[in-house]
Amino acid sequence: MFSLSQTLSIFAALPDPVFILTRSGRYAAVLGGSDSRYYHDGTTLIGQYISQVIQQPKCEWFLSQIAQALLSRRLWVVEYSLGGNDVKGLTEQGPAEPIWFEGRVQALDFQIEGEDAVVWVASNITRRHQLEQELRERCERDPLTQLYNRRKLLKLLTENLTLFQRYRTPTSILIFDLDNLKKLNDSSGHLMGDKAIVTLGEVCLASLRSQDIASRYGGDEFVILMPHTAAEQALPIAERLRSECARRLRALGIAAECASISGGLSEFQCSDTSIDAVVSRADGALYQAKAQGRNRIVLAKGPKCTESP
Predict the structure, then answer these.
(1) Which intervals hold domain GGDEF (predicted)?
(2) What is the pTM of this model?
(3) Could you say which DSSP state residue 105 is in?
(4) Residue 265: how many CB atoms within 10 A of its CB?
(5) Domain residue limits, the chain
């Protein structure tokens, strides 16, 4: 049907690079993938071994995928990234940023120079990966404040509670909200209420430590997760946050009775078996802050965790 030269031209025109790899990781052939906007030139790989080209531990990962495809004898699909730190002697020709690939690996039914081999088609999925990351980020962010949303917070709280139960690393959370939001909405309108909420989010982003995790829990309620932080360390952080929130709210022209926050602070305890217990305790301290006159942080009472993990 096709002459040898036509067949070779078809192989060379393949949009994505196709690697013929032996079990030991030798590049027996490299076909296609010649567009330097998406791929580096792979022809120099022919005859070399993956161990000569790819740094550890990624080299071992590639060899394990080849072995898995040979074992299963079925189409084996994987996703992976390759960047400058992974590849030895990377040329300047081709993309500079790390590239994400979908690898489609299929065992061949014949050997190459006495070795089992696979065909590995590598498709550049970097743009798709970026879009997935952006979508995931949007799903985890509150659109008004750009802080993490309730769903993401609950996931992080669960992860940190698991770590606490294992290692007993001190961890605290602060729940706070705007004082007299309804009065602010009634007197100045809901637009001003939204501005106040946005301002609280901005203060969280600007004032907290890099390790602290801020989220909008719902409405005007915010939660700050403070890993590796005992209550005694968390309290001055919460007080500085309260002071800065008041300053920024007053700068918006909000009346003093509405230009403040109240918060409840709690440390993870040995008796905590769920995040509900942690949140409930901090929420109770928040209600105490409201009852005591607002514009304050109340530390929830509870025994210090002295048990070993």
Answers:
(1) 169-302
(2) 0.70
(3) E
(4) 26
(5) 4-133, 143-299
Does position 92 have pLDDT exceeding 70, yes or no? no
Output b/e per residue, 166-190; b: 16+ Cβ within 10 A. eeeebbbbbbbbbbbbeebbeebee
| Cβ atoms of 172 and 157 closer than 8 Å | no
* Mean pLDDT of the region 241-261: 95
Query: Rg of the chain's alpha carbons, rounded to an integer?
Result: 28
Q: Which residues carry out catalysis? A: 220
What torsion, rounded to 10 degrees, do the Cα atoms 168, 169, 175, 176 define?
Answer: 150
Statement: residue 298 has pLDDT above 80 = yes
Running DSSP on this structure, what letter comes out for residue 179? T
Tokens 């409840």 correspond to 264
Query: Exposed/middle/buried for 266, CB within 10 Å: 0-12, 13-18, 19+?
Result: buried
- Residue with token string 């905590």: 272
Show the beta-strand stretches assigned E in 150-293: 172-178, 213-218, 221-226, 261-267
The 10 Å Cβ neighbour count of residue 160 is 21
pLDDT of residue 174: 98
Range 143-299 classified under CATH 3.40.50.1000 = no
C-alpha distances in Å from residue 116, one per residue of 46, 77, 291: 17, 19, 75
The pLDDT value recorded for residue 307 is 64
Question: What topology does CATH give the domain 4-133?
Answer: Beta-Lactamase (3.30.450)
